[in-house]
Amino acid sequence: RKMTREKDVARGQWRSKFGFLMAAIGSAVGLGNLWGFPYKMGKSGGGAFLVVYLAVVLLVGVVIMLGELALGRKTGKGAVEAYQAVSKKFAWVGYLGVASPFIILAFYNVLGGMVLKYMVAFVESMFSGGANFANIKSGAYFGEFICNGSDMLLYLAIFELLNIVIVMSGVESGIERFNKYAIPALAIILAGLAVYVYTFPGAEKGLDFMFKPNFAVFSDPEIGFFKVLKTAAGQMFFSLSLGMGVMITYGSYLSKEQDLSREMYIIPLADTIIAVLAGMVVMPACFAFGLAPAGGPSLLFVSLHEVFVTGMGGFSGSFVGFLFYFLVFLAAISSSMSLLEVCVACLLDRQIRKGKAPTRAATTIVLALVLFVVSLPVALDGLGSNVAGGAAMNSPGVMMGLKKIPVAFDCWLDFYDMLSEGVMMPLGSLLMSVMFGWVLGTKVIADEVALTPGKKLRFEWLVDLCFKFIVPVILVVVLLAQLQDFGL
Ligand code: PFF
Ligand code: NA
């Protein structure tokens, strides 16, 4: 008894139920909600996409969320050792879970740094009367920034430094404490902005773009049902931080009091609401000022920049711009820290298993340095390409300086993105699903849920059906459809 308690102290534990929820929602809510979801939804059938997305969240997302949280809490271990603890055959799956964060972090931190730069620039603009944005178009401003290697590195370094400080402070005094304030703040700012954008005429057209159901996409030869499904599934994994060991790791810091049969719905629900709400800010903002809808970096760093600087303009434009990038920064860093924590936790587990005292601070710093190096191709991708202006990071011909990718991706960012959300996350989840469905049995999860006094897993038969058949079938289809993107 005393042993386990000592171990918990060494590994860390959430202080409150609310704190865990905010940390988990913080991991989920990120750039995926802000620049991925609204555009993909608008482009892939609007309301029709939403139906498919919600189905994938319910049939796949919710059960994988449950599986990860239960696996973490049951074993009290990070991704690698959690799998090793429950199954010989699947012992290696955890390594996949630790490899994926490296791939995501390689680009995620670069973007986080860029968001930070924009946040700072809008503060500067507030005090300089917009002088720093004068005489330069949004596209050119962005192009100059991403081709400026030292600026890219500087902001990447600052972003990582903030991340290090939070993660090395520990689960409770670092991650939980940050998210407890950051996530409510994010929600409030987002809701405020959603109201504010409707004071501009034409905003409603953004809602049309996003929500108007277009069921014809399912039979469209260019898009079609499988592509919509693949897009929805990839987006869902990325958005809910699944298949990466994050929820296993965060689950390992849970007490038996936390009701998993409820949190398995709350986290996906919160993430989806924020994604829809984000769409109700960014799309109307673009449409109100006559800008074409976009996704990815060009939405965040070009279109919206133009909305704040040219569209809204003046001090209020700068202030709203600052608020917006501050919100994006909170979303990005709370996701980024969860990925770093996955890797840190695995190394700390190892130290504990070997009977050493865990060295969280040193481990975090060393890992972050490794990640910094992995991010370099993305951060410096703009070097060597000459961006005259109007360029976006995700358009062909830009960010190609270091491009030596054998497949048809525009840039390193796209490549890493495809690899993670398109392949590794579905693959990791497929393996977990097979493990629970066919090897361990869903009962293991139901038993874990039932450890919370008075709670039990509802619809256990349905969860079982999902692990055994529904999730594997959907994921095999998704993975096969994905091969096309790699030109196979
Ligand atoms: N869920 C985050 C987003 O939507 O931006 C990104 C992310 C975080 C993906 C953590 C995966 C992960 F493990
Ligand atoms: Na998300």
Automatic annotation (TrEMBL):
Protein name from the UniProt record: Sodium-dependent transporter
Primary location: membrane
Chain segments annotated as transmembrane: 20-38, 50-71, 92-111, 152-169, 181-200, 232-253, 265-292, 322-348, 360-380, 423-440, 461-483
Keywords for the protein's UniProt record, in alphabetical order: Membrane, Transmembrane, Transmembrane helix, Transport
Recorded GO CC terms: membrane
Location(s), subcellular: Membrane
NCBIfam families registered for this protein in UniProt: Na_transp (NF037979)
